[in-house]
Design goal:
The protein has 186 residues and is mainly alpha-helical. It has five helices and two strands; from the N terminus they run αββαααα.
Length: 186
Amino acid sequence: MNTLWRIEDIDPDDPEQRFLPALQCIPIIGRTPIVFVEPLARAISKHLTEAGCPPMDPALATKKFQRPYRGEQHSLNGAGQWVDLDVSDPEPVVIQDPATMTVREREAQVERLRYLGYRINEPEPATPTAQVIDTLDTPPRFDPSAHSVTEVNAYLRALDDPIEHRRVIHTERNSKVRNGILRRFG
């Protein structure tokens, strides 16, 4: 991607670089400035050199290029502008880190982004991967080895708990290994 061209960084003897600083964000009154991609800017610079234009002289300049105050720092960013030599550079825009915000501030930011048209989905709830079962206090769970294939299949069909479903299939794989259950649910 194009970088910003500064007169200090160019080679004045290279016709393709000689006018690059002057060919970024060319102002047009009341309109968006003209920006050139680097190959086109280099071709114009070479043409101006071949047409006899003298090299750029910083001592004769009455304006300076002010870097874009926000956004990407390259020559295609139209936020850069030509200003008088005595104008100081603007303060850089600082974007707050969401990690430093409170929960309410982050929620307000998310709602503002939704209002602006960004599609932000709610975070997926964490899927529990393990569950501690205290067999002394809790009655024992369904034991597939104590039931028939039809009873185990009926139990698994009616089950809404994915953890219990995985536990029953795991128990079946490690005990009787009945194909009538494992082919359907395993």
